[in-house]
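Researcher: Going back to the complex we discussed earlier. I've cleaned up the inputs and rechecked each line, so this should be the final set. Can you rerun the prediction on the complete assembly and write out the structure?
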Amino acid sequence: MPLATSSPALPDTRTRVLDLAEALLLERGFNAFSYQHIAKELGVKPAAIHYHYPSKDDLGRAIIQRQVRRLRKWRDLPRVAELTPAAQLEALLTVYIGHLALDRRVCLFGALAADFRTLPPAMQAELQTFNRELTDWLAQVLAAGRATAALTFVGSPAAKALQILTTLAGALQVARVHDETPFRAIIGQLRLELFSS
Amino acid sequence: MPLATSSPALPDTRTRVLDLAEALLLERGFNAFSYQHIAKELGVKPAAIHYHYPSKDDLGRAIIQRQVRRLRKWRDLPRVAELTPAAQLEALLTVYIGHLALDRRVCLFGALAADFRTLPPAMQAELQTFNRELTDWLAQVLAAGRATAALTFVGSPAAKALQILTTLAGALQVARVHDETPFRAIIGQLRLELFSS
DNA sequence: GTCTATATGATGATAGAC
DNA sequence: GTCTATCATCATATAGAC
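Model: Rerun complete. Updated structure for the full complex:
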């Protein structure tokens, strides 16, 4: 029984389609990737993709829904949920730094926000949910961090959470337009302000 | 001589095309607006637009180039250049608040950054120029403002300028996805931090 | 259950009419 | 100098083959 053919098994086609679509979405935006891009990569005809995801609306929604599930899972992971607030914030920064390392991928929110009005309504609603949950989580982290004097900021935790997430999404966009330098400067600035002891 | 037909004259067709294209770009993104959208609005056939701007590349470049000219003109206007640094920063915020008021338009950078890799190379270069000039200007304003203790921040003026502009671009995107509330919270947060006396 | 042949429409662009 | 008729290409999507 050859080991190479056993687990971890290749993801099934449905998952491979979703993975490719997500990568293309973050690379080109929702309106600039097509079923043809996915099909070519998989060695099938574009119409084959419609079997797995009947419309582009379905495909886009699936991408965002999976990201919402990932967020909830990540947030509730013992190795994240049991960290101190300061370490949780650092873990969040690490996620964005990971995007940078992955060919300077923008985050899902940053990829969809500008084209928001061209998105199918169902996708719009999913994206709002995703961003709201992420912001609420960070606001709670910030409140807890300030209570123990581990994090420093003025204003409300909710406003600060919005500002930080907006900055992070924007920082990945700037990295795309220029290079990693401005991204690293912005991350450094955030650390300097929030972790100032 | 009827007053209504005299000045201010309607912009010529070339300018009207550019204005419409810019509005569509900020509304839908570069890949989701077409010559047909512009043509329908002007009551001509799509191909007519190609007379004024042979390719979409030309049209996109013209939009960014005009914005670069606007930035330089605005920056050097006596009523802006002669302000105190704190007032110059407030003037910048006013520009972004103006975008919000105009049907929550994102800024040019925010509209193009995510789709950057799908843009014609000439447009990419123009966008880099625009963002660099804006960032350099703000960095200099911040440095001057801190020198007179009118503005407060830690870190380098260059990093702070990047962070602020990134936040502003992102704030308009968040406003698009949700509503004006998060945008106003972020602007309030920026004011609270920078103008803290 | 999975994929292909095909339809229909939108896109950016050219060549040429007025 | 300005715009229209037309084109080749690519888009998403349906119907049906295996």
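Model: Worth noting: The CA atoms of residues 85 and 144 of chain A lie 6 Å apart.
Researcher: Good, that matches what I expected from the previous run.
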